[in-house]
Automatic annotation (TrEMBL):
Residues 1-24 form the signal peptide. It comes from Prosthecobacter vanneervenii. One of its GO terms (biological process) is proteolysis. PANTHER family: MUCOSA ASSOCIATED LYMPHOID TISSUE LYMPHOMA TRANSLOCATION PROTEIN 1/PARACASPASE, MUCOSA-ASSOCIATED LYMPHOID TISSUE LYMPHOMA TRANSLOCATION PROTEIN 1. TPR repeats lie at residues 388-421. Residues 29-168 form the Caspase family p20 domain. GO terms for molecular function: cysteine-type endopeptidase activity. This is Caspase family p20 domain-containing protein. Keywords: Signal, TPR repeat. Pfam families: Peptidase_C14, TPR_11.
């Protein structure tokens, strides 16, 4: 009998220890994320300016929203594969699993691939079979991340790809057309998943003029907004990018989410029955409300033109936007904008290097893009030509400032708006040349020199540039 009691005592002790251990074991995070930012690409692929900032900002925002975040930067293929395996282990039982990638991405044979750093991927001269084999062995297939997330068991899976920047390796040696810079393909997500792209299928995204890419900058804004469902976050992001790019970049999502709504930044505040307000003592009269100051009168058109001719671009554009707030978009904006664009043209005409005038021109063009959005109606005949001209001149200023990658983004946004403008194509060739993309530069110069274009001077400049490349 004593022996049996001792066995029972030991068993109870083991059960107690096991229970304490189980209670101490950490629960899996209800929200988990893998955030990748690749920026330091080799010259053949093209380094990126904002992707590191994008990934850091997204990681911080997600942590603030209660996510357990695995954050990686400038990963090779092996490092990316290890990060995905580590991430997959955190997904079981999670409410939300989120994969965010900022960097280069390309489509090969209808599949989407992320470009690790130091990948060694080179499509030059490869046939279709070799190209697909290279992609599968050198790059990372997005479908692998989607499948891993689906099978791991998170309730809601989000894949966000800010990965549509322009890169030469999106084109093979047989299809090197500088007017087709790359982009990703549509994807069909599994049930319970949403896949978001920074721009629509087959298009490229802007790397942004500030510290973040255009898409991620808008995404961050709405991720932090309480009361928005997952779907509303992406819908508002798309609207913001569309507006700020003047229609040049349209984000896309492919969703098969199921179940209840998920609010990443918290549910909307509950509307509670208002308690009756306490009555003030009868002896104390309520104070009179302060009078609302009258809205400032917008400047006259004559005053705006005076500012524009005097080179006071910021003041003129501020006045234009005041008029837009008071009157709505209208024809009044056309003449001041024409004057400002002509002044930028004059300031850049003989410039050969960075200067205060060139920096001012770049700033003026950035402000003008906002003015065009606010001050001209969407269907105005001058809106698209003015936008293309502004982007083109901003690209010229950025080239002189030594910011060729941003200049290339500006020309890429301008060319689809006015594809018949050979100056933009020629200028894009100059940006490619400054970045060391000789093949792309030659393609642009060749196209700009075509007799189908009416701008004789641009054709001559393109011919001269081609002659220097021989």
């Amino acid at each position: 009998m004593p022996s049996r009691i001792s066995h029972i005592g030991c068993l109870c002790l083991l059960l107690a220890l096991f229970s304490q251990h189980a209670a101490a074991a950490p629960k899996p995070a209800e929200r988990t994320a893998l955030v990748i930012g690749n920026a330091k690409y080799e010259a053949a692929v093209g380094p990126l300016r904002n992707t590191a900032n994008d990934a850091k900002a997204v990681a911080k925002t997600l942590r603030d929203l209660g996510f357990a975040v695995i954050e990686k930067h400038d990963v090779t293929r092996d490092q990316l594969l290890k990060a995905v395996v580590e991430f997959r282990a955190t997904l079981t039982g999670a409410e939300v699993g989120l994969f965010y990638y900022a960097g280069h991405g390309i489509s090969v044979a209808g599949s989407n691939y992320l470009l690790p750093v130091k990948s060694g991927y080179s499509p030059e001269g490869a046939d279709d079979v070799t190209l697909r084999l290279l992609a599968e062995t050198k790059l990372f297939n997005v479908e692998q991340a989607v499948a891993d997330m689906k099978t791991a068991g998170a309730r809601c899976n989000l894949v966000i790809l800010d990965a549509c920047r322009t890169t030469a390796v999106a084109r093979t040696g047989r299809t090197r057309d500088a007017s087709s810079p790359g982009g990703l393909s549509e994807m069909k997500p599994p049930a319970g998943s949403l896949i978001a792209f920074a721009t629509d299928a087959g298009q490229t995204a802007l790397d942004g003029d500030g510290t973040n890419g255009l898409y991620t900058e808008e995404l961050l804004k709405h991720l932090r907004t309480p009361g928005l469902t997952v779907e509303q976050v992406f819908k508002r992001t798309r609207a913001g990018v569309l507006e700020r790019s003047n229609g040049g970049q349209i984000p896309a999502e492919y969703s098969r989410l199921v179940g209840d709504d998920i609010y990443l930044a918290g549910q909307p505040a509950a509307v509670s029955a208002a308690a009756p307000a306490a009555m003030p003592p009868a002896a104390l009269p309520l104070p009179e409300p302060a009078p609302t100051p009258p809205a400032p009168e917008p400047p006259t058109l004559a005053a705006l033109l005076k500012l524009a001719h005097a080179g006071k671009s910021a003041e003129c554009i501020t006045g234009l936007q005041q008029m837009a707030q008071a009157k709505g978009p209208g024809d009044y904006a056309v003449e001041p904008i024409e004057v400002l664009l002509d002044r930028v043209k004059d300031d850049l005409k003989d410039a050969t290097q960075s200067s205060p005038a060139v920096e001012s021109s770049a700033t003026t063009c950035e402000l003008l893009l906002n003015a065009l959005r606010d001050c001209l109606p969407p269907d105005h005949a001058q809106k698209i030509p003015f936008t293309a001209k502004t982007l083109n001149r901003r690209g010229d200023a950025l080239l002189l400032l030594g910011r060729a990658d941003e200049a290339l983004d500006a020309y890429n946004a301008a060319l689809p708006l006015t594809p018949e403008d050979s100056y933009i194509r020629y200028n894009r060739g100059r940006a490619h040349l400054a970045l060391g993309n000789t093949t792309e530069a030659k393609a642009d110069f060749t196209a700009a020199a075509s007799p189908k274009y009416k701008q004789l001077k641009a054709r001559k400049l393109a011919e001269e540039a081609l002659a220097k490349l021989k």
